Amino acid sequence: MLKISNHYVSKIVFFLLFVEVLVLVGAAYAGAAVRFLGLEEGGAVPGIDHFFTSALAFAAAIIFSMSAMGMYQLNFSEGLRNPFFNKLMPSFAIGFVILTLLFYVAPEIQIGRGLLLVVFLIAGVGILAARTIFFKTSELRFLESRILFLGSGALAKECSELAMRDTSYHKYDIAGFIPMPQEDALVPADRLMTIREGHSLAWVAAANNVKEIVVSVENRRSGFPIQELLDCKLQGIKVTDAATFFERETCQIRVDSLQPSWLVFGGGFDQSFVRSFMKRSFDLICSGAILLATFPIMLITALLIYIEDRAPIFYQQERVGKDGNTFNVLKFRSMRNDAEKGGKPQWAAQNDPRVTRVGNFIRKTRIDELPQILNVFKGEMSFVGPRPERPYFVEQLAEVVPYYNVRHSIKPGITGWAQVRYGYGSSAEDALQKLQYDLYYVKNNSLFLDILILIDTLKVVLFRSGR
User: Fold this and answer.
1) 312 prior amide bond cis, ω within 30
2) Which residue numbers delimit the Bacterial sugar transferase domain (predicted)?
3) 430 and 305 both lie in a single domain
4) CB 240 within 8 Å of CB 212
5) N or C, which end of the chain is more exposed by having fewer CB within 10 Å?
């Protein structure tokens, strides 16, 4: 895994992205060669002076569209056929719209319609070929990383199941499990390994060609081989804590077995002036651009809400923000006027019967969130951050969910890591799962991660899979 601005990115995905950028730029030049094959040397080729810029613009638009369609969230169980027709073709359609707008703004880099059609055809064939080779190559064992688990209890079992997920593109070959004293073995007995007298943990790891040891031991008070782990690290074997392994593989921070020292001494949690300045600038630029682009949609939404369920069009609700301070969030009303009879707060849920027909659509497409742009301008919210919750639920969740108030160390957001990765929460268990995503964002937040979340948000809107 690569770590870019504190966010974990698979080396395989990064390599695939790099290859497909080359394929798309190459497709632009190949299309130009085919389209202008009959022109004599010195003939007028439209836009040839800016063709490299045009090729880069084409590649950037398609890569952005493919990312928005989730084509870099690889699922090996899907195969190639379904993603090609269900995702690549819509990606090209979105890319065409983006390029049309871009060429209108910068006509000097425009690619003619005839040439663009040829480029799209070559690009489609090139991406299909690249992904076919990639998927076939991924089945070879040399791409697998051989790992060893220190521990054989519940934590080791969970980590091993995570490592062997069928849909995972980062494959592991598990060498075995080293049992620890006073720990019940919950993994297959034939996978247990023992360290014989005269041998060391480093010897066992080297003998089994282990590249990484995952420390998945819950009780480290007695018999914990800290010196042997240090020897392994000095010999070039990577040693990873279970919390870091979980964070890396799921982009969450597991809280039920988390050591407070891991949060204190680990990296991340950047609250510097530079990060705050970049965050605020990003908020204002994105909010201003989206307000201008969606203002007509907001007017139509207000009219439809009034026609279906009359006034009020908006509703304000008290939410908990940064440092536990409360503020009133502004949203389009998506539920009936009597959604909370008696004034008692209720959890929102998927297919909530209180949601109106217009409300169901605007929740799925996240249009109901757009008025929160005003909260961003006021500085009460960020564009990207943890979802702000109501004080009534915060008091309940803080009592049963560990580290819940950590999410209040930064401003809440209109969209966020938990919103694009998890559905509506209707219980404390859902809140725990969403918190694990929120903690990952609080710990690793950066401009790079904000951009990825915006792309994922676009995918949610396109598929109407609102969270």
Assistant:
1) yes
2) 279-462
3) yes
4) yes
5) N
